[in-house]
Amino acid sequence: MNQFASPPNQESISWRTWLALIALGISAFAIVTTELAPIGLLSPLATEFGQTEGQAGLIVTAYAWIAALTALLSAIFLGRVPRKPLLVGLMLVLTVSCAIAAFSAQFSMLLGARMIGALAHGAFWAMIGSIGAQLVPARQVGLATSIIFGGVSVASVLGVPLVNLLAQLDGWRTAFMVIAALSLVATIAIAWSVPRLSASTSIGLDALTSVLKNRTFQGIYLTTACAITAHFAAFTFIEPLLSSALRIRVNLISTLLLVFGIAGIVGNLISGKLIDRHLKRLVLISLALMTASVLAIGCLPVGSSAFIVGVLLLGWGAGVAIVFVGFQTWILRLAGSSAMPASAIYVAIFNAAIGAGALLGGIVLSMTSLSGLMVIVGSAMAASLIPVILIKAPTS
């Protein structure tokens, strides 16, 4: 029996389904904002708790690694749990995590609150893609995935800057409380709009092993690990690259970072229109665009035009957003009844790549310049094109 509940109308998506997809997108926004927000709050957090910024960075690094492990464990232990109550429960856990973080009196309490949130994060991402596939006809899985993952792009352009602004206006505790409130709103929206959905029938270590033996999955996972690690190795240091290496004026840096985020939203819109019909071609073009943009940024001389930098950031931001959606859609289209374990492995690799990217980027940067880092990262992105070229295009 197929794990996916058939959408009630195969010809069109009902208004309540649209609301469910939007609610899941809001949840994605809240979760990604929760994960990334501390990056811009490390200095006030370090000052508040008497830590170095490196020590404060544990709340980002540990979060990513725990989320990766949880994604795998959720495929083994949560596969038979009904989807709707599980989603509601996970969002409530995230809400409580952010609320505890906001009232933390010691750094250990803040770190513990973050780890609780990471548990919900990993389990949420392990199943969210497959839930999108359950809500819509097979031919519209790419569109559904784009809507849900649109929360990721919006979080990157609006979530983190908004959190930082709240911290500047009323302190970092207010920022965490606002995220907690948003998570609670998303919880209520999911409880109201998402229908009852069947649980997976393919779970456990055997299911994970079966997925990992599939050559196509192996190629997608390899490309994901390479491309996402490379992306975060570079993106973690984008601000110092712009300010120190390229010497962009301070008042233009926030604008350029906004350009990157807006490009991600545009990339999501493009993927929503084209990915269901041209998945492999779109992923290849997007990876090539990312590669060319990062390599070009690495080769720019000091004092380069902010306009040229902005154009390259547009290519990079749009490309990576499409790649995010593209690989998730590819896995769901290929997985069928194994969507839960296949998606769990993807999420684990994705989150592990976030932590690995920042770590490897710092190591490479200790041996070369910021521009040199971009060239090395661009080369790694170019290598990630090879598995995609060799993988057979999925059928709709």
TrEMBL record:
UniProt name for this protein: MFS transporter
Transmembrane feature ranges: 18-42, 62-79, 86-109, 115-136, 143-163, 175-194, 219-238, 250-270, 282-303, 309-332, 344-365, 371-391
Protein's organism: Alcaligenes aquatilis
Keywords: Cell membrane, Membrane, Transmembrane, Transmembrane helix
Protein topology in the membrane: Multi-pass membrane protein
Matching Pfam families: MFS_1 (PF07690)
InterPro entries: MFS, MFS_dom, MFS_Efflux_Transporters, MFS_trans_sf
Subcellular location: Cell membrane
Residues covered by the Major facilitator superfamily (MFS) profile domain: 18-396
